[in-house]
Design a protein that fits this description.
3-stranded antiparallel β-sheet; elongated
C-alpha cells in the first residue's frame, strides 16, 4: 500500500499482517494502537502502525512460563451483559 497518512480499519488490519477485527479493536481499547475518528469512521495513522510494529519487534517477547502465569488485565475483560427479564403474555382464554 502507498504511504498515506490515514488507513481504514480494513487496510490497517492488512498492514499488520492480516490480524482479526477483534485483535485490532483490542489494540484500540488497550491504547497500544491510537486511532482517529472522523465523523463516524475510525482511521489509523501510518505513524501509529509503524510505532506499534517497532515496539513489538524491539521488545523481547515474554517466556512461555511467564505468559502462562500472567493474569488477564481486568480492564480488557468484557463486561457482563445485563440480565434480561421478559414479561409473559397472558394466553388468550378459549371462548
Amino acid at each position: 500500500m502507498d504511504n498515506r497518512v490515514l488507513y481504514s480499519i480494513k487496510e490497517a488490519r492488512h498492514l499488520l499482517g492480516g490480524i482479526s477485527r477483534n485483535s485490532i479493536y483490542s489494540l484500540f481499547r488497550s491504547g497500544q494502537l491510537p486511532s482517529v475518528v472522523i465523523n463516524c469512521r475510525r482511521f489509523v495513522t501510518h505513524s501509529a502502525i509503524t510505532e506499534l510494529v517497532e515496539k513489538s519487534t524491539t521488545n523481547e517477547s515474554p517466556s512461555v512460563d511467564s505468559a502462562r502465569l500472567r493474569k488477564p488485565d481486568q480492564n480488557s475483560l468484557p463486561l457482563p451483559l445485563p440480565a434480561v427479564t421478559r414479561k409473559r403474555r397472558k394466553d388468550a382464554e378459549p371462548e
